[in-house]
Amino acid sequence: KEFLVEISGTTVTITCPLPDENIDWEITGTKTDFKEKKYIIEDHDSSPANVSCSAGDSKYEMYLNARVCTNCEELDTLAVIGIVTADLLITFGVLILVYYFSKDRKGRASASAGSRPRGQKMQRPPPVPNPDYEPIRKGQREVYAGLESRGF
């Protein structure tokens, strides 16, 4: 048999697996005055604790390491599925809108460019060479003689 642990906000409810109603609870070595089957810890601080419940000669022990928070909200599976589905539908809707608006814009741009009269195409002259990168001429080899590769 196992303990049943329920967490809601900062409240932790532990149900002992013993069938008796007169149960002794012990938390981290300290006995409590609580005698019912369900032990409720209000404002739990998320610190680990050793919990045990006993009745007569039967004793059950458990290590409790429950993380709690004050502003947490529980979501059931149906709510999570609904949120993910709605997000996907909205994303696909925006994707389709962008596709159709961009498709129409391409068609209009090509039609307006084709109807405009064009001038005669003129060829551009080649760019003026940069004087810093002039080719080496036969008579100027001595200027670049210091740039030869040296053997080590």
UniProtKB/TrEMBL annotation:
One of its GO terms (biological process) is positive thymic T cell selection. GO terms for molecular function: transmembrane signaling receptor activity. GO terms for cellular component: alpha-beta T cell receptor complex; external side of plasma membrane. InterPro entries: CD3_esu/gsu/dsu, Ig-like_fold, Phos_immunorcpt_sig_ITAM. Residues 109-139 are annotated as: Disordered. It is found in: Cell membrane. Keywords: Cell membrane, Immunity, Immunoglobulin domain, Membrane, Receptor, Signal, Transmembrane, Transmembrane helix. The chain crosses the membrane at residues 78-101. Pfam families: Ig_5 (PF16681). It is a single-pass type I membrane protein. The keyword Cell membrane applies. Its main location: membrane. This is T-cell surface glycoprotein CD3 epsilon chain. The gene is Cd3e.
